[in-house]
Fold these 3 entries.
Entry 1:
Amino acid sequence: MKNPGLKKDVYWNPIVETLPLEKLRELQVKKFKRILEWAYERSKFHRRLYQEAGLEPGDIRSYEDVEKVPKVEKAMMRDIQRKDPFPYGDALCVPLEEVTEFRQTSGTTGRPVYQPDTWQDWEWWSEAWAYLLYAQGYRRMDRVFIPFGYNIFVAFWAGHYAAEKVGCEVVPGGVLDTEARILKIQELQATAMMATPTYVLGMADTARKKLGIDPARDLTVRRITCAGEPGASIPSTKKRMEDAWGAKVYDHVGATEIGAWGFECTEQPGGLHVNEALFLTQLEDIETGELIEDPGRKGKIVITALDREAQPCIRFDSKDVAEWSADPCPCGRTFRIIKGGVVGRADDITKIKGVLVAPSAIEEGVRAVNGLSNEFEIVVTKKGDLDDITLKIEILPDAEGNREAILGQLRDQLRLKTNLGYNIEVHPYQSLPRYEVKAKRFKDLRKHG
Amino acid sequence: MNRREIKGMEARINKIRKTTEELKGLCGAIPAVERNAARILASVKMLEINISDLLMLK
């Protein structure tokens, strides 16, 4: 397992992160079989699922066999929960008294799904985050401020514990309001932060308008890890955040049911590495289900957490859409990259006027234009038989003199990014909804008739 | 790092696991020992994931 030319102090685990892909695959298949056997023996839910498919763990001998294992969807977890062993139901693989952590999903797509973790699973969560924080340059001299509510959603909990594991000093910024958080970051000279893109931009706005603080000039934060919504992988949103804070902004992707499975490294290669040490990540064609191994085609992510034991995540259909990158990363990691990060959700990507559109593509177009505020809203309706799409924007007060040029640029960007024309409505500055943590800017009213 | 060195680390990880499991077995009614030993074993699993599992490779 020699790794000539290994970069120094770049990797949390330099051996695993630079293994040749065929070795990673070999390791993943062995670990997949292990977790499959674990779930088959202990989870009535999983055993039932596999027996109905005529499958036993011994049937999985190769990477190609993995596809035979039936997928799990969120709705299936909803159906089995709120029953004994209460409240998790029969996908629980450990005695109830071994569960030490309760979290739940946000409930945006339906009733929340409960997620039990043992202390070992919780260590595993922070291990997955340690891989990503180390890849984003967090080190023992960092003072990490986490402006997060420390609530029932997993969000940045594991980021907190991983930063501790890496050896950073962690400042928990819960309870404080936004202004108090900014002042605390300034007082303690925090060097790093974790937040959603909406909150990163919101904090910068509050700092300038209410405190007369320019984060880029007056604060010491130089690295920001984002999670919770796509923004940090949308180039124009990332640029807005980096310019506002004078910091590097790195994306990460994870989910309550899965774990922290993807991350951007300091090279910012235009995508996210999938953590091949802890997860088996596959792309499937959205319509045919065929496995996609090569770059150039978008697919749905189906993912297995290889070491998560209390409530295993095996061939979980995440509904996230991505495509593989063709290019290796200068960081030297052999972990594959999903190009541009998660580009949308299979249930968010929608046809408008016959064109498939991801809300993130619209965001990319809007944020690429200077002179617009950070807020916007998209409303899709039906006018007779035809789709109609309206984009509501705000022009910054000091850019009003440039209105026509800005609108022209916006139309060009939207055409380029989405191949669509929009009704553009200019709203008074600060009149569009503001979001605290996660934004809901895309409203498809066609579904409601 | 070569396979021999990884095997050396694995041996020590196994020793930590075995010793901690023995301690858990010996501790009787001392929750302070039993629960802290359980936490150590969770960390040992992270060492196994990062190092010992590599020996599954041919």
Entry 2:
Amino acid sequence: MKRTRKTKVRNGKLRQETKSGTQDRLAGYSEAYSQLRTQRHGREPLWMQQLREDGWARFTARGFPTTHDEDWRFTNLAPLARIPFRRAEKVEAGFLAKELEAHRLMGAACQLVFVNGHFAPELSDVASLPRGLEWCALKRAVDCGLEACAPGGIEQHLGRYADVRRDVFAALNTALWEDGAYLRIRRGVAIEHPVHLLYITAGSGDEIMTHPRTLVVAEEQSQVAIVEDYVSIGVEAGFSNAVTELVAADGAVVSHFLVERENLASFNVSTLRIEQGRASNVASHSILTGGGLVRNNVHPVLAGEGAECLINGLFVGDGHQHIDNYMLVEHARPQGASRQFYNGILAGHARGVFHGRIVVHKDAQKTDAKQTNRNLLLSDAARIDTKPQLEIHADDVKCTHGATIGQIEEEQVFYLRSRGFPEVEARNLLLYAFAAECLDRMKEPAARAFAERLIEQRLDELALAKDSAAGDAMLEEETQNREEVG
Amino acid sequence: MALLEIQDLHASVDGHEILKGLNLTVDAGEVHSIMGPNGSGKSTLAQVLARREAYQVTGGRVLYDGKDLLEMSPEVAACEGVFMAFQYPVEIPGIGNAYFLRSAMNAIRKYHGQEELDAMDFLPLYKERLKLLEMDESLMNRSVNEGFSGGEKKRNEILQLAMLEPKLAILDETDSGLDIDALRIVAQGVNSMRSKDRAFLVITHYQRLLDYIATDFVHVLVDGKIARSGGPELALELEEKGYGWAEADAQVQPA
């Protein structure tokens, strides 16, 4: 009896400690919320204030998810909660414009740059905007409402798609976003070159959090490619909690690229929520090479008949990187097609997650959904958790999924070596070929070239890191393949 | 000096001895055919010469062009001019045929301190050789061997041979699984590559390939050793009498 009581007391104490600890940890978020409320009060329209309040209520009620939450089973957020991130009051660009040059996308139609969550007009390039492409910094767009200076339609879309009830990070973003991009592509217009949205965290000694919010509205029959790019300048840990709502109206063709290349101390949670109209065609490409702890949520809803969606991704992790990909593809109307292809390369102690959820609603007859996740593990300590999850409520559908986990095939290495390729080159070439499968699915040439360069750089780094480690261990690894088709 | 001199070669796979004292001398310009029943060690010989690491050499030596071949890695052997046409060519998704071949040629050129080939130097030669092997130009941009039929894969091996221009070409059962047309095309490729500076080691189970490729010598491999050597007539004799004859023969002969 006595013992039991003791334990109970100890547990009670422990729980209390944890609770007060959690409160301390969330103090930074509370402070940010009240600062922001004071600053934005009276400037923001009521509907936005209401969205923020709802988001904040949701976040405070639930806090950060734990690994008991099925959607977060493989990702422990304790390291994120431990760091007292603060918001940046203004741009505070503690870097040279020169440093930015390396991060530009050649051949972009325009580039909007955000530093520590704030729009930086002096660093942006909107000099030669193509006709039919309208943009505005989101803060200004919301403040102006429908008063001419910003493209209209914002109230009708902003916050209408991101799921603050289910997703705590979307709730937190809704409560705390300070700026972001609002893009509207006019009906029937095809924008030839990609739009580059560059979100920079430059801590200059501080641990900065940002909650970038992006809204893209591609009107009927329009076409556009958007590159959303997360970069850090400096070595400080940052926390980027981004939400993008992308609306592809009937017949619109949209490519969205997410590039995560922040430093290895950074936390990045990105949520892409896509709303697809009738016969729209959306491609989501994710290139994840940076960040210490990354969560990549992609959530298209095929809300119109005959919509098509491609979800294409490549994640490359090394060291102690943790990259969690959470896909939720919702088929709501008939004749929709979705294709998911995610390739992962994991070295060192890196850990990857691929959670591929497909929901086919009752009305979504003749849905054709396919999911493929292929992973290369380059070390014994690297790890991948891959989990398909199909929920099918219609009876006339085609859904397949498959996942493989393996090493570089020694037969292929030998084949290349027998033709004269040095071993290291042979391995790099095979790694590159594996990554190139994702590149081949990118149609937009400038964005593709940009992605290609980033991937090449990352794989070269990986090869260098590998060379310095004992390369011989590779030879003894056995190939294992798990193939699953259902 | 012989191009290839194999002396008392012993080799094992997974602890099983497969080659048990093999001797063979090949001069430049010659075509040698190695025939033998399944399990006699034909493919093991090819793999050892191509330097596959899973095959352990437990005794003997191999001099290639005066150098110790057994000291070479697969890539060094390749750069020194040893080429093996694989019995089961490997598919490499994501790497285009043309890119692969040009990179291979450049790896070899780099090894010899030669300037690299650019696409302009490479393409005309590549197209010419594609024609020789009766292969479609659309193959250029397809991934290496991916989705190729068995015959296409074997032709692709000979195409690589024709491009890389090795000094010692080893054909590891290149004829197996080929229909008569593919066999003729493969043989045509090989014949066009014959030269006084190049030797061929043609490993085959059947005499059929030798109808198309004129061989200078035939060796019968039985239980890890060469049991019999002779001219092309030996292949015909084997065809007639079967491997049982050579096996029985091997048993009465002292090792």
Entry 3:
Amino acid sequence: MGLHVAQAAFYYLAAASVVSALLAVTRKNPVHSMLWVLSLFMHVAGIFLLLGAEFVAAVQVIVYAGAILIFYLFVMMLLDLPGEVARPRFGRHWPLAAAAGLSFAALAWLARSGAGLPPAAERTIDEAAPPGGLLDMGRQLFGPFALPFEIASLVLVAAIVGAVVLARRRPAAP
Amino acid sequence: MVAPVETVLGLSAVLFGIGVFGFLARRNIILMLVSVEVMLNAVNLSLVGFSSHLADARGQVLALFVIAVAAAEAGIGLGLVIALNRNKPGASVADLTDLKW
């Protein structure tokens, strides 16, 4: 019974995320596009939850939907909005772009069925650290992935400094 | 297992294709960057799908790194957009041809 509900929820979330993504890339008003992307992120976070990735789902909502998307909306509002609505939203080459997107999706779909996926792993009942749980993830992050974890902080510092340097108002050139 | 891993990967492929279309077709530079975020999210979905399929936390760790890099990319990309808008107010991507020869 519980599994059927979870499966129904999964297919609802999958359909809703595809519809949100399609609306996000085709709406004329940039703010509407952004709000559809927010809906996409929320539905994908629901899928993460169903797949047992609770921490990634929380990070998706807090960092993606909460921070990154608001940042985009903020910059969008700083710039010229009415002009954007009047402008054509696609370039003239949009059928080519559609063909590229479709063929990429088809390619990924074919690779998916041809790769010969390994069978699903046996679930071992380990109350202390269920595989894929938060405890297991923390052990990975501070064990084998400690160096990449530190490098991620370096990347973020570089991005902060770079964003300040790029967006700073320069004094008039001598 | 809520859904077979093939379904999750198919959904990820479809979302990635939509992101590719948005990136190539949109003429608004901010919405092009948002399409990149849609693509990154599709990749995260397939990483988490594999993590759940193989009962291995490493996929989720990689998804976290992807989110961190996406945050860095958003900061740099939007800094560039603001600098661009200050130098050429109201420019669309079609007008940005200074690096062409």
